[in-house]
Amino acid sequence: MTNEAAIGIFDSGVGGLTVARAVLNVLPREEIRYVGDTAHTPYGEKDLETVRGYSLSIMDSLVESGVKMLVIACNTASCAVLDQARTRYQEEQGIPVVEVVQPAVEHAVTRSRNIGITIILQSMSQLESKYDKKAQTIIDCCDSTLFLGGKSNSTNKEIAEMIGKQTIHQMTYNESTGQSSSASKNLQIQGRDLIDAAEIGKMSRLKAILLIAGTNPLMDDKYDPHAHKRYRYIVDKRNWKRLHKNSFDFERYLKNGCEPYTPDEDMGAEFTAWKWAAWKKSRKGLLGILLNR
User: Fold this and answer.
1) Which residues, at least 6 apart from 197, have a Cβ–Cβ distance to it below 8 Å?
2) Average pLDDT score over residue span 127-147
3) How far apart are CA 164 and CA 195, in angstroms?
4) Distance between CA 258 and CA 256 in Å, rounded?
5) What b/e readout covers 60-71, taking b as 16+ CB neighbours within 10 angstroms?
6) pLDDT band, residue 293 (cuts 50/70/90)
7) Global confidence as pTM
8) Which residues have C-beta within 8 Å of that of residue 196, sequence separation ≥ 6?
9) Strand 218-221 to strand 207-212: parallel, antiparallel, or no bridges (unpaired)?
């Protein structure tokens, strides 16, 4: 393997060509060797072991061809094989392995195409365990942060630092009387946290904190999902307003298109109407009389 060797990029299909184009935009003198596994696409509907086998087979062939770097341009493959690939090629053979969600590729691909990335975490430590020192870079690149509450001390401290401090001006006056009277005035400027980590930990779970770059932090009530006009489309046994009994079957959709469920599979509106009627009949007293009119 030499510096003149190609960069190997693979995807489950042709979508990874956007990554290849982004790499060429940044490194126009580099040679790209691209493999799209169209014979087995899409990877998303296959189990991880199968995806891992396909991915390692392709990367083995790229390494045998003499590439100097491997870029996994498929999110499913990244989840299935990234750790094993880094051990197999990067640690044992000295060939770097890069995934599409790494910050370097993130900037090259998403910013040039105005694509937004939303990162959902339970704790900041999850990001740190995955990306180590690069975790802070990812956080710094997020213009908006929505904190829904939690008990992680590290996360609460991070949010408190992001909210910042309040400037306090304290003016003190001193006056002494007597044979030689005197007076003095002193102005002190101090900083105090708008909210500290302990207060964030005690924050009501009905509250949320929104941080948007260039604006003041905002604490407000969380939106009640039950009040949303599309809540009835959520398939949940606890949701008695739901329109459908069965959840959307993606595998069925990919195979048969928009073929509807049969009445036996999904009773739809009739199912909801029946539950509503049963609920009304179960009520007693004045409320039951009014509901049953």
Assistant:
1) 153, 156, 157, 159, 160
2) 78
3) 8
4) 6
5) eebbeeebbbbb
6) very low
7) 0.45
8) 160
9) antiparallel
Rounded Cα–Cα distance for residues 82 and 72 (Å):
8
Please report, for residues 97, 170, 177, the alpha-carbon distance to residue 183 in angstroms, rounded to integers and kept in the order given: 71, 17, 9
Does the pLDDT of residue 262 top 70, yes or no?
A: no
Mean pLDDT of 90-103: 81
- Output the 3-class SS for 71-140: EECCHHHHHHHHHHHHHHHHHHHCCCEEECCCHHHHHHHCHHHCCCCCCCCCCHHHHHHHHHHHHHHHHH
User: Cα–Cα distance between 47 and 56 in angstroms, integer?
Assistant: 15
What is the distance between the alpha carbons of residues 229 and 241, in angstroms, rounded to a whole number? 11
Structure tokens belonging to residue 57: 């087979």
- Interval 157-171 mean pLDDT: 85
CB 203 within 8 A of CB 149: yes
| Token output for 167 | 């400037």
Helices 124-131 and 153-163 sit at what angle, rounded to 10 degrees? 100
- Cβ(219)–Cβ(233) under 8 Å? no
* Alpha carbons 99 and 84: distance in angstroms, whole number: 13
The strand pair at 69-72 and 97-99 is best described as: parallel
Average pLDDT, the chain: 78
Distances (CA, A) of 119 to 15, 29, 220: 21, 33, 21
191-218 burial: b if 16+ Cβ within 10 Å, else e: eeeebebeebbebeeeebbebeeeeebe
